[in-house]
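User: structure tokens for this one?
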Amino acid sequence: MTLPIRLSRPGVRRVAVLGAGSWGTTFAKVLADGGSDVALWARRPELAREISQSKRNSDYLPGINLPRNLWASSFIPDVLDGAEIVFISVPSQSLRENLRIVRDLIPSNAIVVSLMKGVEKGTGDRMSEVILQELEMLPDLVAVASGPNLALEIAKEQPTAAVVSSTSLETATIVAATATNPYFRSFVNTDVIGTEFGGVLKNLIAVAIGIVDGVGYGENTKASIITRGLVEMTDFAVAYGGLAQTLSGLAGLGDLIATCESSLSRNNTAGRLLGQGYSFTDVVKQMNQTAEGLSSVAPILELAAARGVDMPIVEQVAQVLAGTMNPRDIAPHLTTEEDTPAILVE
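Assistant:
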């Protein structure tokens, strides 16, 4: 069940955000605008200086003014010093190595929150699972945040909402209260699996939508794939212990709509390039930020096979990525096991 937070204004919290890309910087802004003292880790010293001195991140959020109570550093110990909550926004495939660098620097009683939407290649682990393994933390001190959250729109303070999930309702409530301000509302639930997989799986459907968009197919095709995609997402999440109702909420359907329909979506953009005939290698070269969906296709299909979940949309995306299917032939919403009409429960 997703519960709204009724906020009395929280006291000033010292929070840290690791990762100064578009989403990490945007979420740092959300937290600062909610009243927290925010330290942001930027890998490049010149970017950290720009954020701290000019209150801008021209590489990832051009034209956006950042709050005065947000500062950045490339020196991780300074960023993590005294942090009550640590938010992590790095590429999913580099999370484990980054955690090994910071594990002895994170305060022992800090809450750690994943802002990432991916699964690890090789292990198939969700980001919260990687955090638990590498930091050896209690599950009740780990949370994930997800929802229809396109960074640039939020940075422009366009109203939106998100879900914070933890096995501890108290932890989720603390994080959600910290990540709430006049333009950004956080809700809570305790379905970490459903919330996390919703954020991962919608990226794969968004790549498919981008492909059909790039090919030139219209709204009927896209609506069909989005609708059937939600069924795939729900079947998968439930097979791994998530709740179906989570996938019909902000972390599932809400995120799916935003990511599939917006040109701001990296995964949609990557799919559109594939649909226009670019190879996977060319797409990666053209993208100046990580499209998590491209990295998650293979591990998600492995996890689906392990639980017997049928995912024709993701399978066809994998074929396009591998170059074994012409993008014009992608039509997973038409796929059935037989030529007889499919009986679908939606």
